[in-house]
Amino acid sequence: MTFINYASKEINCKIVYYGPGLGGKTTNLSYIYNKTAPEAKGKMISLATETDRTLFFDFLPLDLGTIRGFTTRFHLYTVPGQVFYDASRKLILKGVDGVVFVADSQSERMEANIESVRNLEQNLVEHGFDLSTIPYALQFNKRDLPEILPSDEMYRILNYKREPTFEAVATEGIGVFDTLKSVAKQILIELRKK
Amino acid sequence: MISSSAHLVLHEDDHRLFGESLRRLRQDANAKAVFLIDKNGQQIAAAGEIEQFDTMSLASLTAGNVAATDGLAKLVGEREFSVLFHEGEQDHIHISIVAQRGILVVIFDDRSSLGLVRLRVKRANAELEKIFESMLQKGQGGGTGERTSPFSEITDEDIDALFT
pTM, whole model, 2 decimals? Predict the structure, then answer.
């Protein structure tokens, strides 16, 4: 749900990074945070456990610049990926404008990827959204690890609606900004339609 | 009820009304700062000593807090817990729901009291609710209002320019 503020001339959009536990959602946000100029970003908040697993969410506000005189700000959130945090995960999707699915490329994590896409689909429905229409990008993360599935095979299994798909190594930043740009563009195009 | 996918649109006149109402509340409650936040974590208006707070983080964390509390309410069969209170050593935070869509945050210290804040928040609530309703109605009107959306004419070049 985009927030258009005519008083402060701002557009605020919400992007949620979704995916299985330890897939690299927080790493995506951390990389974006580290590579963004201080004036274009706010504080990154991580509500994590003592072992650095996301407990509730990570949050990073990002200014992308102005469009038609309006400051365009994206609020990036991650969800906790672990299966048993579903109640919290659902809350983060409230008011979402676009979703990035961070899939783990390791073959042993394919079941977890599949389960997480299903979970995303269901949780979106509970908020009145539809994965087939919402701005969406798919990221195959951890391409640098051994024992990974080929991208075309991952695409065949995880692709939902021919969404834009990116190979990534989030720890090194490969594919991170391309994925973000893709979903941000889709959101702005949706804004134009409405 | 507005649909979950509809945009929230805040025009200058409503922003001014919210601002006036929050300034009054801050003064009457003797509070340090008062914020009005959308349930999705966007700040709508604020008054008081706001420069000492990271307002964006405050909005996001408050919305997360309220969302989690809403979840708890449903678990025990309540529609919502409409008031949250966090007591610190010096500063305290009073959080309440306005018009089902907004969150009113009052930050105060020992120059005020919980009783006074509760009383003033109750009074301010009715006023804020009216402004909220007017804002949501205008938002639902969308393109039918007197103002056409500036975003209907966004070009691909405008969008690409953001990423260069």
Answer: 0.91
ipTM: 0.85
Segment 136-175 of chain A within 8 Å of chain B by CB: none
| Of residues B153, B50, B100, the one with CA closest to residue A189 | B153
Q: CATH number for the domain including A126?
A: 3.40.50.300
Q: Number of folded domains in chain A? A: 1
Provide, as residue numbers in chain A, all residues whose Cβ is less than 8 Å from the Cβ of B150.
68-70
Cβ atoms B162, A62 nearer than 8 A: no
Query: Is the Cβ of A188 closer than 8 Å to some Cβ of chain B?
Result: yes
> Which range of residues forms the domain containing residue B137?
12-162
Residue B26: inside a domain, yes or no?
yes
Q: How far apart are CA A71 and CA B119, in angstroms?
A: 37
Taking only the tens of pLDDT, chain B with its 164 residues reads 334 446 889 999 999 999 999 999 999 999 999 999 999 899 999 999 999 999 999 999 999 999 999 999 999 999 989 899 999 999 999 999 998 889 999 999 999 999 999 999 999 999 999 998 888 887 665 444 445 677 788 888 888 888 77
CATH number at residue B102: 3.30.450.30
Of B114, B141, B143, B135, nearest in space to B17 by CA: B135
Distance of CA B131 to the CA centre of its chain: 12
